[in-house]
Write a structure and sequence with these properties.
CATH class of the largest domain: Alpha Beta
Structural class: alpha/beta
Distance between the termini: 86 Å
Largest sheet: 7 strands, mixed
CATH topology of the largest domain: Trna Endonuclease, Chain: A, domain 1
């Protein structure tokens, strides 16, 4: 260990050793929090010691080796993991929040989640956003990574809505956060010229991923949900109930650009659900129109005088099959040929 006093280094390792032993005593009570506090302390100690003694990053190799010798039955002291401890501390120590407040965020999620955040995100405020989302929604590490990759922080609450005018403030704020723009249906594979039925079919086949993209709280009620209004039958594309908003959510899908008349039709469906399904304890039904693309100005004018609360968003696909790929739905010619052969 060039340029490092052996006695100083041994004393430093002894200090970390005592910290680990102290943590072990408490570990049976609060495993995750105590482990993360330990990792935070080790990261802080290494950063401060490097500043004081001008130790280079190569010292981490020695620290890892010696801690594994001292604690052979404890995992987590690999060279890479100790580097993450140091990186984690450096990242969040720049935050304006004191450690006591950080305990309500970074110490509440697993270590692997923290690593995913500090390796994928550079901005502390964005990191805190994903930590809070992980706590709120109990994201797995894979789900957290997917949400980061799909830039949830840029999409949540971005849909154009009339919620502030049509809903009470507390209800409208939560409803606005519930919607995204755009919705990313990158888990679907469709041919280039697909229709609404094919889009619905694909979403139904991937309901778990679809619900994840919609967000926490959506409970599926039905597809092509039938309503009897004035003796006539109407069908809603997708009907959900939101267990946090305590209301029905009507979702209409359009595989074309937004048109003003779509808002009028959705307004009718919301009114019908309010009249036919909504219970005394339910909040007002809201609607989400998810279309292939939209002109924001046209959407804003279309929603301006609409009576019912609704929002308009786009969706995005990434897996599109070639033009020549045949639809899963039979053509008229196919049906006629089948009938003719029977």
């Amino acid at each position: 260990m060039p340029n490092i006093k052996i006695s100083e280094y041994k004393e430093f390792i002894l200090t970390i050793k005592q910290k680990i032993q102290s943590s072990q005593i408490k570990a049976s009570i609060k495993v995750n929090i105590e482990l993360l506090k330990l990792y935070w302390d080790i990261g802080e100690m290494i950063v401060n010691k490097q500043k004081e003694s001008s130790w280079g990053d190569n010292i981490i190799t020695n620290i890892s080796r010696d801690l594994k010798v001292e604690f052979p039955n404890i995992k987590g002291f690999s060279k890479s993991n100790i580097k993450y401890m140091r990186q984690w501390y450096l990242f969040f120590s720049k935050s304006q929040q004191p450690v006591a407040q950080l305990e309500n965020s970074i110490f509440q999620i697993p270590w692997g989640h923290n690593i995913a955040i500090i390796t994928k995100i550079k901005d502390i405020d964005i990191a805190i956003f994903y930590i809070n989302k992980t706590i709120e929604n109990s994201y797995s590490r894979a789900t957290l990574k997917a949400q980061i990759d799909n830039q949830l922080h840029l999409r949540e609450g971005k849909a154009i809505t009339n919620f502030t005018k049509k809903l009470p403030k507390i209800h409208s704020e939560l409803a606005i956060e519930t919607l995204k723009d755009p919705y990313k249906f990158d888990f679907l594979t469709l041919r280039e010229k697909y229709n609404e039925v094919e889009l619905e079919d694909a979403l139904m086949e991937n309901m778990t991923k679809f619900l994840l993209e919609l967000g926490q709280g959506f409970s599926f009620v039905g597809r092509q949900y039938k309503l009897d209004v004035g003796g006539e039958k109407f069908k809603i594309d997708l009907l959900f109930y939101h267990i946090k908003l305590y209301c029905y959510v009507v979702v209409e899908l359009k595989v074309v650009d937004f048109k003003p008349e779509f808002a009028g039709k959705l307004n009718f469906y919301i009114s019908a659900v309010d009249g036919e399904l909504r219970g005394e304890r339910d909040n007002p039904t809201i609607g989400i129109l998810i279309c292939k693309s939209k002109n924001d100005t046209i959407v804003e004018y279309s929603l301006k005088d609409i009576n019912k609360p609704m929002g308009v968003s786009e969706y995005q696909l990434t897996q599109i099959l070639p033009k020549e790929f045949k639809s899963s739905l039979p053509s008229i010619e196919d049906i006629e040929e089948e009938l003719g052969s029977n």
